[in-house]
Design a protein that fits this description.
Elements: H1 8-11, H2 23-26, E1 44-50, E2 75-79, E3 82-91, E4 94-101, E5 107-112, E6 120-123, H3 124-128, E7 140-143, E8 146-155, E9 158-163, E10 176-183, H4 195-199, H5 201-212, E11 221-228, E12 233-239, E13 244-252, H6 258-262, H7 272-278, E14 279-285, E15 288-294, H8 295-298, E16 308-309, E17 313-315, E18 320-323, E19 327-329, E20 332-339, E21 344-354, E22 363-374, E23 379-387, E24 390-401, E25 412-416, E26 424-425, H9 429-432, E27 443-445, E28 448-453, E29 460-467, E30 473-475, E31 478-485, E32 492-503, E33 533-534, E34 539-543, E35 547-552, E36 561-566, E37 573-580, E38 584-595, E39 600-605, E40 608-614, E41 620-632, E42 635-645, E43 656-665
Parallel strand pairs: 15-22
Antiparallel strand pairs: 1-10, 2-3, 3-9, 4-8, 4-10, 5-6, 5-9, 7-8, 11-21, 12-20, 13-18, 13-19, 13-21, 14-15, 14-20, 16-17, 17-18, 22-32, 23-31, 24-29, 24-30, 24-32, 25-26, 25-31, 27-28, 28-29, 33-43, 34-37, 35-36, 36-43, 37-42, 38-41, 38-43, 39-40, 39-42
């Protein structure tokens, strides 16, 4: 990571505060949503060390979209412990606040303040998967294959973070992020010790409860309500005698049930995904436009009503949308909800409490941008480009992709105060959102969520969010945040995203909404292979051993399913009934699964022998195989599969998977 590119001198020109930075002072910031509403004291710069592809570094042959984002380190050191791979070499005072990896392995070491021996030495996978007490969930955890740790590790002078190859795994393939803050020289920082965990046990428990079960502020009161006709706007205003802040904002709309939604066309204006896109939220604080987004996107679950809950946002299936970001204002706030769809009743409620507004206070902002077009050429999608002073505090993303191929190889990049090279450069879109390997698993964690992922594979609608509450990116002059458009398939997609930031009054306002992007892109379901006799639909005539079931969830298969036979023993047989529409001579083709735990099987079709097929490979794939030419009668014939063993390299489960058969008539 080009840490030297951070403009620390300009960024941290103010004198260091006398307030001590410590585990005790940092822990409350994990759940205190007022912390990011004003300039920090002491101030800090934020950045990220990562395994991004160093071919992206400046130079005559620079490739900003290079994708070898693993096994890249600051340097490799030869130590008495063997080779150590330096992930981050940070000069303080500062604090690490986030560590992520897709594939943690070996020992992770933290060397504080120039120590010769590491103060922290643990199995990386234990620490980042929440298996090392007391840094268990919600501090350390696995989210859809992404291994995350959010916890403060402050240091007075420096911190070196290293990995090694001491267990199964190769540092050369390690994906990692290390998010950190750097304070002004002279800031008093109490360096982390293991004793801090015991000394702050009660505080950690309180913070953990706040992460797991965020509470709405008390005193929610209705500030606007009514039926909004097409083309009309519901308005609400609050003027206080003293400066105040919204502590909780809640919007309630009626929605149809999922069962009712399935009976409607995609374009039906009553569909939740259309209602929530056609209601536009405008909010101004003290006369400045600050929020301009579709209503559903603002709450981080677009398109549609996709329930989830984390620290700043909750969406429930009954149409209740809740935001806990604290939104200060000196004099007044005005809400407008514009309706571009059919008439609908909307209720807006808020909890508004006194707030000590001063010259260091910030307004809350949100804007909605996106693009619809080709995935080629690769390019940087602009999420935020602002002037002024404040914090970048997160994004949500909705991807509408017609391809099953992975859309998320793109790296995030944050450029602060005009620095020559981004001080945050990531390793992939899913890595930024805190999961890994393009997982389709739904999750919601304290600071991030994947509330929707249609599939199969990466096809359809995907919804993601990440809130940088404990790891906000501060800026004093400007900030640009981009995410690469890096899709494996050459196709037409829609990416829309909401970005959230705090800013001192007078900064850049939200960009206007492109209404052409509002209708969510319809992605048609994948059609089964034409003429296929689906394996999952075949009748089982007999089975002498093992277990059969219908296995789902594979985008590579016709209809997303296959017939799965597992745990058979050599000599066991499975007999299937295959329909034949009319008599004739056929070439018979089968689409079969191949994987590391699949066996060797021989087959007979209508009594005719078929040579054994070894279905073992190291990964997983479905491959078409010609079984031969057969004279088949009209009606039904039998396909007999016999387990004969397994490849010596295979895991001995002797599995068999049939996606479909094709009967190609010859005469």
């Amino acid at each position: 990571m080009k840490i030297a590119s951070i403009a620390l001198v300009a960024f941290l020109a103010a004198a260091a505060s006398a307030q001590e930075v410590s585990v005790k002072s940092l822990l409350p910031q994990m759940t205190d949503l007022t912390f990011i509403t004003h300039k920090a004291n002491p101030a800090f710069a934020a950045a990220q060390a990562s395994s991004y592809d160093r071919r992206s570094n400046p130079g005559p042959n620079s490739d900003p979209f290079a994708n070898g984002d693993a096994g890249q380190f600051v340097r490799i050191e030869n130590t008495p412990n063997g080779k150590e791979y330096v992930m981050a070499d940070l000069k303080g005072p500062g604090a690490v606040v986030r560590v992520w990896s897709a594939n943690p392995s070996g020992a992770l070491r933290f060397y504080f303040d120039g120590e010769k021996e590491p103060r922290i030495k643990v199995r990386m996978s234990d620490l980042l998967n929440g298996k090392l007490a007391p840094l268990v969930p919600p501090f350390g955890y696995n989210a859809a294959s992404g291994c995350n740790l959010y916890f403060p590790f402050p240091y007075a002078k420096s911190l070196k973070v290293t990995a090694d190859g001491s267990e199964k795994g190769n540092p050369g393939s390690l994906y990692y992020h290390v998010g950190f803050r750097t304070y002004a020289p002279g800031t008093t920082v109490k360096t982390f010790t293991w004793d801090d965990l015991a000394a702050n046990k009660a505080l950690m428990s309180k913070v953990a409860a706040g992460l797991d079960n965020p509470k709405d502020d008390s005193g929610l009161k209705k500030i606007a309500a009514g039926n909004i006709n097409t083309g009309e706007t519901l308005t609400g205003q609050y003027k206080g005698q003293i400066s105040s802040a919204i502590r909780t904002l809640q919007v309630k709309i009626p929605v149809v049930t999922p069962a009712e939604a399935k009976t409607m066309t995609w374009e039906d204006p009553r569909q939740p995904h259309n209602i929530l896109r056609n209601l536009i939220l405008h909010v101004s604080f003290d006369g400045e436009d600050c929020i301009d987004t579709p209503l559903g996107d603002f709450f981080g679950a677009s398109p549609g009503l996709n329930p989830y809950s984390n620290v700043p946002m909750t969406v429930t299936a009954d149409g209740t949308l809740t935001c806990r970001f604290v939104m200060p204002f000196e004099k007044q706030v005005e809400f407008k909800i514009e309706n571009l769809g059919p008439q609908i009743p909307v209720t807006v409620s808020a909890s508004i409490k006194p707030y000590p507004w001063d010259s260091n206070s910030y307004h809350f902002h949100a804007q909605w941008l996106g693009e619809h077009g080709s995935t080629r050429p690769f390019h940087d999608m602009m999420f935020l480009d602002v002037q002024g002073e404040g914090y970048f505090v997160g994004t949500n993303l909705n991807v509408s992709s017609p391809a099953v191929d992975w859309w998320g190889e793109g790296d995030e990049k944050a450029t602060v105060d005009g620095e020559s090279f981004p001080s945050t450069w990531g390793t992939g879109s899913e890595d930024y959102y805190g999961y890994a390997w393009g997982s389709t698993q739904l999750f919601d964690k304290p600071y991030h969520a994947q509330p929707r992922c249609d599939g199969p594979g990466s096809r359809g609608q995907t919804s993601l969010n990440r809130w940088q509450i404990f790891d906000p990116i501060s800026y004093t002059k400007s900030l640009k945040f981009t995410l690469e458009m890096w899709h494996w398939a050459d196709c037409i997609v829609t990416f829309v995203h909401t970005t959230y930031w705090y800013a001192k009054p007078g900064g850049t306002p939200p960009a206007p909404i492109d209404k052409a992007l509002l209708p969510p892109l319809k992605i048609e379901p994948i059609k089964p292979v034409e003429g296929a006799i689906e394996g999952e639909n075949l009748v089982i005539a007999s089975k002498s051993g093992g277990t059969t079931e219908i296995q789902e969830g594979f985008w590579q298969t016709s209809g997303g399913k296959q017939l799965w036979w597992r745990d058979a023993k050599p000599g066991d047989k499975l007999v299937l009934v295959v329909p034949v529409a009319e008599a004739g001579t056929y070439e018979v083709v089968g689409n079969f699964c191949h994987a590391r735990d699949y066996g060797i099987h021989k087959m007979k079709l209508n009594g005719q022998e078929i040579a054994p097929i070894d279905f073992y490979i190291r990964g997983i794939d479905w491959t078409k195989s010609t079984l031969g030419t057969f004279i088949l009668p009209k009606g039904t014939v039998r396909l007999e599969i016999e387990c004969t063993g397994s490849n010596p390299a295979a895991e001995p489960s002797h599995m068999f998977g049939l996606d479909y058969l094709l009967l190609n008539k010859k005469s």
